[in-house]
Design brief:
The chain is of the alpha/beta class. The protein is 47% helix and 15% strand. Helix 1 packs across helix 8 (196-215). Bound molecules: adenosine-5'-triphosphate and magnesium ion.
């Protein structure tokens, strides 16, 4: 069965590409048939894969990275149509903006949208704007994924604010368990398995996404 999952937010640098790569690898390790789509003009994911392969050309490739140029509407529509027929999970790394109208094709196709975010004012504002736009374009459930959370941060007032934000976001979608700011997460490869520390840091939020994937009819 086909499941179409986007990693998206209008805010740049929140961890879309990093978490998209880790999550695709996580799914592959759980033996889900899975492929990643790089829908960002920056092509961070595709270029990362190219570097990984250059460094270790003998290594078998665990999942495909499909590059999608979203500038040509017909092309996007035909590629997405094909991808929706694939028996497996398609994980899409989206760009950090909504300037490209053709992204609508992806939002319409999505079954779930994972929204990496953080609790600083700018990211919350941007995530709010993103949510309003996406709600008009997509029926997909929104899964907010707090990322780069500093464990030592959090005065009482900040924590109170955070609780309120989580409460508000839980009305719109679902807030997933958070991922901490850590070099363990920052370092990602597209050809090797997750190491034990990455696994420990990611399994809770990723299992929560998988539980949502399993709920899709
Ligand atoms: N949990 C984390 N801990 C530490 N660093 C992180 C974490 N998640 C992401 N990063 C780092 O944050 C930066 C931005 O991450 P990434 O490129 O994945 O974001 P993005 O949302 O895809 O950005 P863009 O909008 O440019 O596509 C990178 O340097 C990445 O290594
Ligand atoms: Mg990116």
């Amino acid at each position: 069965m086909n499941k179409f999952i986007l990693f998206s937010n209008i805010k740049g640098g929140v961890g879309k590409t990093t978490l998209c790569a880790h999550f695709t690898e996580y799914l592959a390790e759980q033996e889900f048939p899975v492929a990643a789509v790089d829908a960002d003009l920056q092509a961070s994911l595709s270029r990362h894969r190219e570097r990984d392969v250059k460094e270790d050309p003998e290594r078998p490739i665990p999942w495909e990275v499909i590059k999608l140029n979203t500038f040509e509407k017909d092309k996007v529509e035909s590629v997405v149509k094909k991808l929706k027929k694939v028996d497996g999970v398609i994980v899409v790394d989206c760009p950090g903006n909504l300037n490209d109208n053709n992204l609508s094709v992806l939002f319409e196709a999505a079954d779930l949208i994972v929204v990496p975010m953080a609790f600083d004012v700018d990211t919350i504002d941007a995530t709010g704007i993103f949510t309003n736009v996406v709600k008009k374009r997509s029926k997909a459930k929104l899964l907010f994924l707090p990322n780069r959370i500093n464990v030592s941060e959090g005065k009482a007032k900040e924590l109170e604010m955070r609780d309120k934000i989580i409460k508000d976001l839980n009305r719109i979608g679902k807030v997933l368990p958070r991922i901490k700011q850590s070099v363990i997460i920052k370092r990602y490869t597209t050809i090797y398995p997750l190491d034990m520390y990455q696994y420990m840091a990611l399994e809770e939020p990723f299992n929560a996404i998988i539980a949502e994937i399993k709920k899709i009819k």
